[in-house]
Amino acid sequence: MRAAMDRVKAWNTRLTARALDGLEAIGGITVYGPRDPARRTALVAFTWPAATR
Fold it and tell me: How many whole angstroms separate alpha carbon 35 and alpha carbon 20?
């Protein structure tokens, strides 16, 4: 069971890294929280001022 949970955690970390990379590639977005995906959950909080214009 432990190995399965380790695989889920690793997958979650890779997806979080991909989300962070993608969001940071968009101009004007501010991502909040640690940049290291291993230090966060899958939740990524951000603001995009261009979306409110």
Answer: 8
